[in-house]
């Protein structure tokens, strides 16, 4: 008798969907602050909602409205947003073999490639579970992020002066919270301090928004140099000597 064909493990649908909804609710609450900050920075509620619908990348959106609110140009704001959102392209390369989507569905999947949906997809024990994690999380976050943006925008619009709530500090605080978990070794601290110094020194000489780009460029150079050093160090001296003795 032949062996029975192997079947792909059935994902725990209820657990995955429950986690996806929980992530969506938490992200939606975060979107309340984005909607309020965006309106406080000078965008209308409509512009804020369109930004969430089309850009749909929290870090990039906060950066864009932060630069505009500080008086930066649209070019500097867009450049900062693109720089922060470029990681999603790398996520897409990782997710493509898991999702296996074509046509219009591929375009929809691309819109949902974010930190949360990627985290819920990779590392699953089957492709079915990965696809369920991606779509359920992506849709949950998309719906609740846009709902939160709308409510936050209207809430800020109802206030005479939204800045009295300290909303201008919410975006930097959010970025610091994201950064904190990575600051566990010496190398990230060195990169962060150098990038911060570059931004501070350049502030008096360049338009608003450009210091962020310069700091990002400095950080990128330091990261590439650090990785190059790691690759060089990975070649052990004994292996080099062994090759030389052949």
Automatic annotation (TrEMBL):
Bilayer topology term: Multi-pass membrane protein
TM region(s), chain numbering: 23-56, 62-84, 132-152, 164-181, 188-206
Compartments, record wording: Cell membrane
Keyword DNA damage attached: no
InterPro entries per UniProt: Brnchd-chn_aa_trnsp_permease
Keywords, sorted A to Z: Cell membrane, Membrane, Transmembrane, Transmembrane helix, Transport
Keyword Acyltransferase among UniProt keywords: no
Family: Belongs to the AzlC family.
PANTHER family cross-referenced by the UniProt entry: INNER MEMBRANE PROTEIN YGAZ (PTHR34979:SF1)
UniProt protein name: AzlC family ABC transporter permease
């Amino acid at each position: 008798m032949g062996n029975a064909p192997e079947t792909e493990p059935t994902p725990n649908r209820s657990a995955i969907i429950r986690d996806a909804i929980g992530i969506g609710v938490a992200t939606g609450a975060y979107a309340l602050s984005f909607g309020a900050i965006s309106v406080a920075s000078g965008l209308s509620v409509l512009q804020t909602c369109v930004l969430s619908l089309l850009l749909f990348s929290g870090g990039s959106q906060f950066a864009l409205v932060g630069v505009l609110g500080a008086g930066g140009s649209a070019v500097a704001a867009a450049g900062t947003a693109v720089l922060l959102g470029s990681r999603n392209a790398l996520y897409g390369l990782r997710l493509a073999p898991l999702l296996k989507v074509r046509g219009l569905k591929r375009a929809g999947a691309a819109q949902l490639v974010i930190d949360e949906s990627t985290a819920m997809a990779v590392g699953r024990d089957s492709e079915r579970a990965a696809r369920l994690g991606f779509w359920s999380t992506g849709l949950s976050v998309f719906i609740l992020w846009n709902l939160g943006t709308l409510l936050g925008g209207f809430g800020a619009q109802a206030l005479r002066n939204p800045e009295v709530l300290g909303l201008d500090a919410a975006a930097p605080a959010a970025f610091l919270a994201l950064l904190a978990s990575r600051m566990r070794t010496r190398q990230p601290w060195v990169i962060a301090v150098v990038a911060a110094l570059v931004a501070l020194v350049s502030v008096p000489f360049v338009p608003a928004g450009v210091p962020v780009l310069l700091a990002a460029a400095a950080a990128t150079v330091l990261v590439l140099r650090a990785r190059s050093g790691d690759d060089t160090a990975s070649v052990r001296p004994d292996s080099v000597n062994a090759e030389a003795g052949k």
